[in-house]
Amino acid sequence: MREVTPESAAEYLRERGRVAPGREVRVQALGWGVSNVVMRVDVAGEAPFVLKQARERLRTEAYWVSRLDRVWTESAALGLLGEVLSRTDHLAASVPRVLFTEPDDFLFAMTCAPDDARVWKALLLAGETDPACAQAAGRLLGSIHVLAQGHAALSQGRLTDLEVFGQLRIDPFYRALMPLHPELAAPLQELIDSLQNPPIRTFVHADFSPKNLLVHAHGLTVVDFETAHAGDPAYDVGFFLSHLLLKTLRAAPAVEAYQELGVHFLDRYHEQAIPALGADLLPRAWRHAAACALARVDGTSLVDYLDRSRQQVVRRFAYKVLQGKGEPSFDLMSTLAREML
């Protein structure tokens, strides 16, 4: 595999015939992630596009690797979602479109988000808490889960392979916690079992979080589908909630605005998806939220914005939820923050 960087991308594209000779090319690195190289390419006289290339070794302090061919899982996911979201006019442009692939180099190109797009994570960390973003996220995720149900790509092909999901989520987020928190081994194993043998099955993004939601004047664009698979939608809801819970805790004691984001997200998701998917999805989602939040302070991929006292709040929250000793909610996280900080 030939590794492509922002410094070498222009030459690479010319060699592959993707850019006409003599055209000016500008390349800049993008992204908050740890697992790929992502670059925006501006070619004179043409629409910008994004290049994405997988890396086997992830950029984390702990040693963490995953298969390079996960980029083709992402390509398959974009194809499925481009099809099902086209049924809903206001969501048709919510995912990028694949432009070309370079199979030997585990690289593909896709359409670019609008120029005014901003990463929602950056806005949240800057204190911007727009309820419309949370509402749009809930509607989008609920629509994806409902519209994708029964699609042929979920019963055969790349999206049925759970190996990369195991490498990037189950192992570092769940199994890595067991030796550190043996009291939680049983509930964590129950969650793993539910992911491997889901009670309901649809398209799962498995990295649906503020860092992968781009906010712009036309709504939201969701990116980064390399962990996508056919599985339990409760994981997506829980994973997203864990991010809002951590942002809420970071803001403590001024938690109200972040709590409201969680309420808005859940209200819109419930409205969009629960009648079709069943109310028992939400208790599973909260258990996943607790486990994922704990993984961000004690797992392989750690957040960098919580001090030690706030990390302790996360641990207590996770224990209460996973051991069934507290009603899971944003209020529970806020209550624990008031007691412990």
What does this structure look like?
This protein is an alpha+beta fold. The chain has a single domain, classed as Aminoglycoside phosphotransferase (APH), C-terminal lobe (Aminoglycoside 3'-phosphotransferase, Chain: A, domain 2). 46% of the residues lie in helices and 13% in strands. The protein has eleven helices and ten strands. The protein has a five-stranded antiparallel β-sheet, covered by helices on one side. The protein has a three-stranded antiparallel β-sheet with strand order 6-8-9. Strand 1 (25-30) and strand 2 (36-43) form a beta hairpin. Helix 7 (233-251) runs antiparallel to helix 8 and helix 9 (281-298) packs antiparallel against helix 10 (308-322). The mean pLDDT is 92.
SSE inventory with pairings:
Elements: H1 9-15, E1 25-30, E2 36-43, E3 49-54, H2 70-85, E4 98-102, E5 107-111, E6 118-119, H3 120-125, H4 131-148, H5 163-174, H6 185-196, E7 202-204, E8 213-216, E9 219-222, E10 229-231, H7 233-251, H8 256-277, H9 281-298, H10 308-322, H11 330-340
Antiparallel strand pairs: 1-2, 2-3, 3-5, 4-5, 6-8, 7-10, 8-9
Helix pairs in contact: 2-4, 4-8, 7-8, 7-9, 9-10, 10-11
Choose one word for the global shape.
globular
Structural class: alpha+beta
Q: From the 3D coordinates, which CATH architecture would you assign?
A: Alpha-Beta Complex
The overall pLDDT average reads 92
Broad CATH class: Alpha Beta
How large is the count of helical segments?
11
Major sheet characteristics: 5 strands, antiparallel
- Unreliable runs: none
Quote the CATH topology: Aminoglycoside 3'-phosphotransferase, Chain: A, domain 2
Strands side by side in the biggest sheet: 1-2-3-5-4
How many strands? 10
In sequence order, what are the helices and strands, one letter per element? HEEEHEEEHHHHEEEEHHHHH
Tell me the helix content: 40-55%
* Rg measurement, Å: 20 Å
Straight-line distance between termini: 49 Å
